[in-house]
Structure formats: C-alpha cells, structure tokens
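Handoff note, outgoing to incoming analyst
You'll be picking up this chain. Sequence as last confirmed:
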Amino acid sequence: MHNFNKAEFILSAPRVEQKPELILPEVIFVGKSNVGKSTLLNALVTRKSLAYTSSKPGFTKLLNYYRIDDSFYLVDAPGYGYSAKGKRDYVEFSAMMEGYFENNPQLKHVFMLVDSRHEPSSDDVTFLEYITHHQLPFTLVVTKVDKLNQSGVSAINKNIKSKFGFLPTNIIYVSSNSGENIAELRNIVVQAIK
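Most recent structure output, in case you need it:
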C-alpha cells in the first residue's frame, strides 16, 4: 500500500553509481531551475520541508534520493538551464544526467516539469527530445496552475504544442499550493513503479 506517509531523505549523489545501496524502483523529477520540483515533492508526501526549497535558482546540485513507504525512491534532479558557474556546470550536469538515464535499470518513469507561467524553453525542448529518443516513459507535469482558468489551460497547451511540436498525451496540471491533482500524480507514480 502506497500512501506516501513514510518519506525519508536517504542521500545526495553526484553520479548514479553512488545511489543508495538498497535497490528499489525509482522515478525522477526533472525540469528547469525554479520550476517547483522540490516544492512538488514536498506536496506529494504532505510535508513542508522534506526537500529543501529555495527561491534562488540552481539550489539542487546533486541527485537527491527520497525513500517512500520503504518501497521506491523519488529522485529530485538538479534544475537545468541555469548556472551561476556557467558552462562548466552545464557539462557536469549533462554528464551526471546521461549517466543516470543510460545506466539505470531501476528507473521506471521520468516526470518532466514545466512552469505554466512561461513558454517551454529550448532546454525543455532538448530534454524532451532526449527522453523521447531514449524511449523513456514520461509524464509532462505542468506546475503552478492554481491561478489558471480553462482558457489559461488552452493557452498553455498551445505554447507546449508550438514549442515541442506536439502535445503529449501523458500530461497533468498540478498546483503544490492548492493541492490540485496531487492525488492523481501520486496515482501515476504508483502505477509507474508497479
């Protein structure tokens, strides 16, 4: 039974080879810096401070592993597209993420986050191309939708379609503040690790 009530931070790893010793299924949350990954993880486990959040972009630097209900890991990835250190950081990020995706039989699903308030960026496009090229199962998670009405949702969909060239069928609109669709997102996670 997965109720997301038992959630603990296990470790931060710069490379997939340094992941926790206990092998469990994994789902990863990836997106641009400040898209709301850590806040969303906290909403999923109904805790305010399991994952540390910061208003400063680029705070998460490593792969953070959280064990949920003693049965799987939620992995919080560093945000892409922002770096105080510039190019060197970007190269390190790329190497870390390629290693994670290409040498990881435990990975069951990728949750790619985009911010409802902005058009997807060229980094979002590149990342989506990467996961579709590698045929990784994914869900597009549109964050920060608490202030959106129906016409706002169609505007977002139009932006996504124009940037990505298609509108993914596996898409969910969530708000960590209002709790909108958080229970549905938990269900997708549970289905993914089965």
